[in-house]
Amino acid sequence: MARAVFFxxxxxxxxxxxxxxxxxxxxxxxxxxxxxxxxxFGNLILALLIAAASGALALSTARDPRTHVFRxxxxxxxxxxNVYEYEHIISFSMLEYIDPELPPALSLKTHRILAPxxxxxxxxxDPEELYEFLADHVEEGKHEESPVDRIIELFRL
Length: 157
Description:
four-stranded antiparallel β-sheet; PH-domain like; 36% helix; alpha+beta
């Protein structure tokens, strides 16, 4: 059965900020210092973990963000082909940022274990119309930025 799509837009999964060579040098120095300290304290596993984590971080910050297709349908919110049905969404909130460069965001809290909190940038549809539509289907809640979101913003990840 086809879903009735009320809102649809495309947006990158996060705001991409190109890292300069200074950022990678700082990451490398911190990683090497952590590995040396771990080896001096006799913790080889931690040194290997630091090396793997810093390598993964360097690779993930170098790639461009994927573009996702977001849809609000009669059944729920879709991100690409994943459907978050209204019955499984605990609450929603519309977030606006002080920085005018950042688009407003739709924050969803869900019952899913692997995706309990979704932050969806709203690029295209009118946020007020989207709010009015979602208010008829899902309870509104007060959502704050999580500590993880703040750390990501602080380190420009």
